[in-house]
Design goal:
Number of domains: 3
Helix content: under 10%
Low-confidence stretches: 1-42, 448-482
Radius of gyration: 29 Å
Number of helices: 3
Shape: elongated
Distance between the termini: 36 Å
CATH architecture of the largest domain: Sandwich
CATH topology of the largest domain: Immunoglobulin-like
């Protein structure tokens, strides 16, 4: 259930015994935010962290938090550049606590915020939020410039005695288009529900420029405990290879995870279950295993995923069934490849009259992983003739360049002609998409030749298909986030 605009005293109450002190400390936290200990942040990297104003710590350890009582935490941002939205996921153990309510407006950096109902989701074990600022008066561009402040107040209800991590999904600027809460883990999550943590800057700048960009963050987590003499397990894992390529099987090794309550030498260091959330759209995006080592390939059918994913490991200890969690960012890279492709040849017309000039452009796209230097050769015929040789052209990865040319048909007889283009790399073998062709017709004067019209129709269809192909390939080849 979404709860907005609650009174600050309700959201910041520890439990019924101490409301006045909680409100005071909650207000104080808006003025002075203390970074969470135990982690060093990059000087220019914003971070989003879990914090409790009441306990003045990210570690909420209090045996007086009996079942039925409540406690509040805040998620804060520090060192933020201009932004007017954010997305985050806060994970916890649903066996011991649950999100009773949350408030994205009271005392937060956005004085008029909006929780997107189409992509936010409060479910068992995870609160997923997509929040935007509706007040566009700040700096005339919709940004609320604030280096540090409060993003959201969260009120938890205690369900039982135990421990629970309070862990944010991995921070990233641009999630993969294939990233999502696994359907087996969150079947009710709407499309677009975040499985990551980031800030978002979108809108129109004073100069009229439209922007829509994600801002990567570092994250800092919290911890809940209301039982004495026991500890939760520590989750830790590594991946191999560290920079996996598209389609590669990735190995996840959680042998470093352990339970501090168990003696050394016990099997798997006191861990009996390893739950993996790989954060993608594959069928096995979440899995539970009893061994610390498992593998996963980021694919769905013939679709090989690219880009950034938030990976979460949850471990269960042997003695108490307590959970420990760890998250990390994994980036699936494109396989290294030299490829300057001819996306298509776009003509101004399918048929022209004798003596009329035909204009066209050759679309060149670097679809590989290297910036390239290339030569472009353009020919037409029959008989075959070289129209242009364009040398020493430079193109960056994902960039598209257009090369306009003109053919004078004054010397051409009526008929059908072919235009061809090929890109040759200066220092490597090019890919199979390095060439393309298209056709045009020269119409006989004062003639209704059915043969030429038929051929011209074929040329027209070819040109249309080539044009459509260009845009389809562009859509399919939108670059994944680095």
């Amino acid at each position: 259930m979404i709860v907005l605009n609650q009174e600050a005293s309700t959201l910041l109450s520890h439990h019924y015994a101490k409301p006045v002190l909680i409100v005071f400390l909650g207000l104080a936290s808006l003025v002075l935010f203390v970074p969470l200990p135990g982690k060093v942040y990059g000087q220019n990297v914003p971070f989003v962290g879990v914090f409790s104003s009441y306990y003045f710590s990210s570690n909420i350890t209090d045996t007086s938090l009996v079942p039925g009582s409540t406690f509040a935490v805040e998620v804060n941002v520090t060192n933020a550049p201009p932004f007017n939205g954010y997305e985050l996921v806060l994970y916890y153990d649903q066996n011991y606590i649950s999100v009773s309510s949350y408030d994205t407006s009271t005392g937060t950096v956005f004085d008029d915020s909006y929780v997107n109902p189409s992509s936010s989701f409060n479910g068992a074990g995870a609160l997923r939020l997509s929040v935007v600022n509706l007040n566009n008066q700040h700096n005339n561009n919709g940004f609320y410039i604030l280096g540090s402040g409060l993003l959201v107040n969260i009120l938890f209800s205690v369900k039982a005695e135990g421990v629970s991590p309070l862990v944010l999904a991995a921070g990233m600027s641009d999630p993969s288009v294939s990233a999502a809460p696994p359907s087996g883990l969150c079947p009710l999550c709407p499309t677009g529900t975040p499985n990551w943590t980031r800030l978002v800057a979108s809108g129109t700048l004073p100069d009229g420029t439209s922007i829509n960009t994600g801002i990567g963050v570092d994250t800092s987590n919290g911890y809940f405990k209301n039982v004495a003499g026991k500890s939760g397990p520590i989750a830790s894992f590594s991946i191999s290879p560290t920079s996996p390529e598209q389609g590669t099987t990735v190995t996840f090794n959680a042998t470093a995870s352990f339970d501090p309550d168990n003696p050394t030498g016990i099997l798997y260091k006191g861990i009996v279950e390893y739950f993996w959330d790989f954060g993608d759209r594959s069928r096995d995006a979440n899995t539970t295993v009893s061994s610390p080592i498992t593998t996963h390939t980021f694919v769905a059918g013939s679709n090989k995923f690219l880009g950034n994913f938030s990976i979460r490991l949850t471990v269960i200890d042997q003695d108490d069934n307590f959970q420990g969690m760890a998250v990390t960012l994994v980036t699936i890279l494109r396989p290294a490849q030299h490829c300057v492709a001819i996306e298509g040849i776009l003509t101004s017309a399918n048929q022209v009259n004798p003596g009329q000039n035909l204009t066209f452009s050759v679309q060149v796209h670097d679809t590989g992983t290297y910036a390239e230097t290339f030569n472009l050769t353009i020919t037409y015929g029959p008989p075959n003739a070289t129209l242009a040789v364009i040398t020493n052209q430079n193109i960056a990865v994902f960039r598209i360049k257009s090369y306009p040319e003109t053919i004078s048909t004054s010397h051409l007889l009526p008929g059908v002609y072919n235009i061809a283009a090929i890109a040759q790399l200066a220092n490597a073998q090019n890919c199979s998409q390095a060439s393309a062709s298209n056709q045009f017709g020269v119409i006989p004067p004062n003639s209704g030749s059915a043969v030429l019209l038929l051929v011209g129709g074929v040329a027209g269809i070819t040109a249309a298909l080539t044009t459509v192909g260009v845009f389809v390939r562009r859509m399919r080849r939108q670059p994944e986030p680095p």
